[in-house]
Amino acid sequence: MKNESTIFGIRAIIEAINSGKSIDKVFLQKGLRGELFQELEGLIRSEKINSSYVPIEKLNRLSKGGNHQGAAAQISPVGFHSIDDLVLNVIESGVNPLFLLLDQLSDVRNFGAIIRTAECTGVSGIIIQKKGGAPINGDTIKTSAGAIFKIPICKVDHIKDAVYHMQASSIKVIAATEKANQTIYDVSLKEPCAIIMGSEGRGINPSVLKAVDEQAKLPILGEIESLNVSVACGAFLYEAVRQRQ
Fold it and tell me: What pLDDT tens digit does each residue of the chain (245 aa) get?
């Protein structure tokens, strides 16, 4: 059974995964057992699908009183691209690549706002991590003003995978971090590049920071130490536009 973007029932979710549906997240009832439930858990692990164990009350809300059998899943309203195909297609098209890597953003409205700005600034594609980030739901779509349907989005197991893929394709990777010694205005964005934005609280994972080519920050002239991530992302992307004009 399903409503707008949620399916529920163990067998329905298993069938959705096996048929190749883009599953954003699966919610499983805490403490539930059973052969079919274990089959679903195994499938979630093998397909590396984002999941969490929740109280039955949350499942009741998600299924709106339907027979959820202890499991519900959010279906992504968009299909995801292969990073291999996307990077190759962009390079072969002759466009100067500009990619955006998002390291586990948690707020769907920030995610949507960033997608909108990325589309407006000619970003070639957005890469997100399979687990730990904000889902693509109605709020994401609304905040993106429909841009989510116009820009390719890829999912990878870990953002570091995307970093290494970019570097192997001669695309410079730049991390947006307040820990940087130089500002974005000291960095060249004219050549093929990918910009990484971190999560709202933690920023960019330290292991990812170690793998990038350059780090850059925005100058902060006030007393508050950081900008909202979607605002910071807009400043970075428009600096790339300015340099490439």
Answer: 333 478 889 999 999 888 888 888 899 999 888 899 999 999 999 888 888 999 999 898 888 877 899 999 988 878 889 999 999 999 999 999 999 999 999 899 999 999 999 999 999 999 999 887 887 877 888 899 989 899 999 999 999 999 999 999 999 999 999 989 999 999 999 999 999 999 888 899 999 999 999 999 999 999 887 889 999 999 999 999 999 99
Could you count the other beta carbons within 10 Å of the beta carbon of residue 211? 15
Does one domain contain both 90 and 69? no
- 217 within 8 A of 179, measured Cβ to Cβ: yes
**CA–CA distance, 128 with 194 (Å, rounded to integer):** 13
Judgement on whether residues 166 and 61 belong to the same structural domain of the protein: no
CATH number, domain of 40, equals 3.30.1330.30
**Domain final position from 75, 110, 136:** 75
- What's the whole-model pTM score? 0.80
> Which class for 45: exposed (0-12), middle (13-18), buried (19 or more C-beta within 10 A)?
exposed
Query: In what order do the strands lie in the sheet containing 71-75?
Result: 6-8, 71-75, 23-29, 51-54
